[in-house]
Amino acid sequence: MTQTDRRGKTKKSTSLTGFLAATVLSSLFIALWQEFIGQTLGALLGDLLWISAILLLLGSLILLIAHAQRGAPYEPLRLIVRMLPNSPVTGYVLTVVAGLSAAVLIAPLVWPVLSPSCPLPTQLIVVTAADSEAVLREAADVYETERREENGGCRPVDVLVYAAGTTETVRQTLANGWELPANTTEMGAGPPGRSYLVDRSLGARPHYWIPESTVEFLELVPPEDGRVNSNGKLGDAGLDYLGPTRMTPLVWAVPDAFPPDVEPGILPDGPDLEWARPGLRWTSVGRLHGAHQARLLAESGRAAEQVQAEARFLGEEGADSSLALLCRVGKWADTVALVSEAAVYQARSALDSASPDCPEGMRTDLSPRYGPGLPFLDHPLVRVLWEDEEPSDLTAERQEFERFLLDLAEDEDAYAADGVYAGYRSVTGQGRAAEAMAAEHDAAHGPQVSEWAARFDPVQWWEWALQADEAHREASEPATILLAFDRSTSMASVPQQFDAARTAATTIIGDLRAQDRFGLWSYPAGDSGREATAATTLVSTTHRDNLPEELIATVEGLAPTHRPTPLREVIRAGVLALEEDAAPGAMLVVVTDGVRIQDDRGLSQEELDRVLDGTDVRVRIIAVGGGAQQAADQAACEVGILPQLTGHPRVECRDADRGRADESARGVVEEARGGR
């Protein structure tokens, strides 16, 4: 009897020890597996696993106890014991089964207590152009995933990507410690702090800048000896040029119905054909378009026609990206646009071509046409080094990120239809998705793109771009702009409205040249009587050099304080004032939300149309959005009485909501210089 008890105790002790060991080891194994897989077992197999684990644990414990108590007098246990093999292996198997089922239940609870928490990730900040923002965010997601897998499940880096606006904006902010100068016009001392450039809101100081083209880098760091300088200095920032990250050729985006026997080019092919390009002065595509035009004219012995050729593009809307231009081209059936191949691919491949920037939907009937003389966008990686001392963990992540992007530039899988850079090409001109689009639309010369990429010289194109910019200036006429600024209370229904209005006004002022003339009104002048239908003259129309030094401060000090919105009355008064001024090609620019609030009937549309019928003054409305009165699917130019105003051929509207106030403002200034 004593020996049996001793053996029973030995069996119990061995079984308990084995059960605890199996449970602990299994729990640790399952917890580690869950951690590295990144999902719990419950998420993988569902609630059925947990129910099964509980039943299995209870059953195996009962069998284990019965096996350990084979000599016990309890009748229920004897019945169970008869079904179990009388072997030591039975105890071991039951112990392991019980341990595994217990581990499944307790591992998710135990592991978070035992495992160390992940430290906060290091943040890398990348600024880029509007067209590149989405694709770089996708690349950043891939990079973060790879680094997390390499780091045992913890994410060591967070990559923030955002669009920082034009090269001029980047130049100013880099030289100013990544703060917008308070006075962008150099005419006076505006209030301290950042300007109202809300359209390209600046985040934290960037570690990298990825512009559209090396041509933009050369504007900040001019080349020496015909080569790109890999290092430069701008304000408190050092710039290191690390090389291209991907390429995309410029192509002619032509309607599918475009005659196949007409070869697109810079020179006019016919009186019914229009040409369009993004803004010359604030996009790489625009700069390279001008450079191509200058080069083509020079090589054909027609360099003297360069100014006249540039004059054809004065007055175009100032689209600040290829996709924005493709949205505008949707309005003009017989227009050929020079844009990037990647933009055409994205427009044709989009499942939903409508976007906040293009609410009416992108045209999808545009095909690429290639030419051996067209330049490329190479999207260089530029490292920004500030004077502050850099932490060692940031330096390590920088090096990993640079290696990732530069390796991705040569990875063929990145340029497939499901790749990160779908629609782009590698630095050698190879790109599976782009080549498939070219073949699908029977685009001429598509197979030769790789050969052309090898001949692309950014320094030469930068030199041609300088000539184009000079020709553009010579072709420009002095602008006369009277700006009428809406101060009605409806402009403050959302804060972004009035900020966008300030942005439009300060952008126009910042784009003025010495020979340009400018005047500033605000309206209404008051809440009642004649003031409710009149404007206040803040600055009489005068040359730029004679403008008051406090002009920017005046604009930034405006506030929405009056209830009425005498839109028609102010347009009539502004047109008559410019007629009296007798300036050729004068333009009235009205910044408003389009919401008209009147206590009386006011001026009718018919009366205003009669005034517009007898004038050469052009009226351009910059619509900043109707705030609370603007429907989700409604464009800014569709709010209030704006559709009635734009029914007259001398009145046009520019949408300036959704972060496009600066682009719209630049566009009207360009148009004012065109004299059209």
Automatic annotation (TrEMBL):
The keyword Lipid biosynthesis does not apply. Residues 480-625 form the VWFA domain. Keywords: Membrane, Transmembrane, Transmembrane helix. The chain crosses the membrane at residues 16-36, 48-68, 89-111. Residues 656-676 are annotated as: Disordered. This is von Willebrand factor A. It comes from Thermobifida cellulosilytica TB100.
